[in-house]
Write a structure and sequence with these properties.
about 80 residues; mainly alpha; two-stranded parallel sheet; about 60% helix; globular
Length: about 80
């Protein structure tokens, strides 16, 4: 399954993100976990999310495998 297919699958399972006003674009990262994390963390910072919440996001995202990372991203922000 490629990244776009995985994004679409996870979008269907989501109940909505914690920060729906924070929108990130994941296509173009070619599945690179580090690039995805950098993109999301930067967007959270630009939206004024607290450093404590950003640390919680990082801990949750890094707390498992790649699928967990994507699930965490979808739980926290709006993904295009």
């Amino acid at each position: 399954m490629n990244l776009d297919e995985e994004i679409n699958r996870m979008r269907g399972e989501s109940l909505g993100p914690r920060y729906p006003h924070v929108v990130v674009q994941l296509s173009g990262h070619n599945g690179n976990a580090g690039a995805i994390m950098d993109t999301v963390v930067q967007a959270l910072k630009e939206a004024g999310v607290s450093t404590l919440d950003i640390a919680a996001f990082r801990a949750e995202a890094y707390g498992g495998d790649y699928e967990n990372l994507l699930a965490t991203v979808f739980a926290w922000v709006e993904v295009e």
